[in-house]
Specification:
alpha/beta, D-Maltodextrin-Binding Protein, domain 2, 2 domains, ten-stranded mixed sheet, 10 strands, about 45% helix
Length: about 325
């Protein structure tokens, strides 16, 4: 009988400690690591989520850019961090695509991280330097076929949704020899595109659309299934001669593996609130960002589905590290 009572007391103490831990978290500043330079869509989403979490939880959530090696440096930093909820990762779909074709990825995206929430997704925009004499993607494809060496694609990262879109378009449009110039982050890619060092880029809406609005870039197509409301004259890629084409870039929040379940659940709920907040709606909704804010369990299931889908795309594009 004494043993039973002792076990019940210990169990109650454990439960109370877990509840207290969840209630007290966070009791110090939290790092939100972005493994890319400032200015890209991951960075934009992270800063809005950080602002929301700081307000909701009464503790500072700080974005830290740890760029390099196609996102590996910052992501690996989080994988090796203490699983206490004070070092988190904001990443994009590229995170789960890279291991499908790049060697020596220093972590296992399925085993070394705890999925917390699918924050949302955006369509991509096919944007060109204003000097490119094409009004839409169909015309750009025709120009590339006439002089394949004169034009280039640019990508902010190997394995990104933009990169996969470019590889797919090359294959389906019959321009397999069009050069894709890889960059390390969205910011540097956009700088060179605006300067005319490269011709065309496929980039998530939040980072590319402001330059379209400012007249520094021109839109050729959107990668979504339907046209976007604020660019009604810009055709979809499917309308541009590639029927059935659709691609989005999605964004998520992760922690290190073995994150306590109570902290995992709390972060999942609060991240969902942050990404669906009026601030997020105002700043991201106007750029076709579709907020999700899923639970950790829903996000884990979604990741598995996406990996299977991307594996088919990588195989079809015969994508290999060079």
């Amino acid at each position: 009988m004494k043993r039973i009572v002792k076990s019940v007391v210990l169990l109650a103490a454990f439960v109370l400690a877990a509840v207290a831990n969840a209630q007290s978290y966070p009791n110090k500043p939290v790092q939100l690591v972005v493994p890319y330079p400032p200015g890209g869509t991951v960075d934009v989403v992270a800063r809005i989520v950080a602002q929301g979490l700081s307000s909701q939880l009464g503790q500072q959530f700080r974005v830290e850019n740890r760029a390099g090696a196609n996102g590996f440096i910052g992501s690996d930093y989080v994988a090796k961090a203490a699983p206490d909820g004070y070092t988190l990762l904001v990443q994009a779909s590229i995170f789960v695509i890279n291991p499908l074709f790049l060697p020596n990825v220093p972590y296992d995206t399925q085993k070394d991280f705890t999925p917390l929430s699918n924050l949302g997704s955006v369509p991509l925009l096919v944007v060109a330097n204003p000097q490119v004499p094409a009004r839409n993607l169909r015309e750009f494809i025709a120009l590339a076929k006439q002089d394949i060496k004169k034009y280039t694609f640019a990508t902010s990262g190997l394995g990104s949704a933009g990169h996969l879109s470019e590889e797919t378009i090359k294959r389906q449009a019959g321009i397999p020899d069009l050069l894709i110039v890889p960059y390390k982050g969205t910011g540097p890619t956009l700088i060179d595109l605006i300067a005319g060092q490269v011709s065309v880029m496929i980039d998530p809406m939040p980072s590319s659309y402001p330059h379209v609005k400012a007249g520094k870039l021109k839109p050729l197509a959107v990668t979504s299934k339907n046209r976007v409301s604020f660019l009604p004259d810009v055709p979809t890629v499917a309308e541009s001669g590639l029927p059935g084409f659709e691609m989005v870039s999605w964004y998520g929040l992760w922690g290190p593996a073995r994150l306590p379940k109570d902290v995992t659940a709390k972060l999942g709920i609060e991240a969902g609130r942050a990404v669906r907040s009026p601030l997020a709606t105002e700043r991201l909704g106007a750029q076709a960002f579709a907020a999700v804010g899923s639970s950790p369990e829903q996000f884990a299931a979604y990741i598995k589905e996406e990996i299977a889908r991307y594996a088919k795309i990588v195989k079809q594009a015969n994508l290999k590290a060079e």
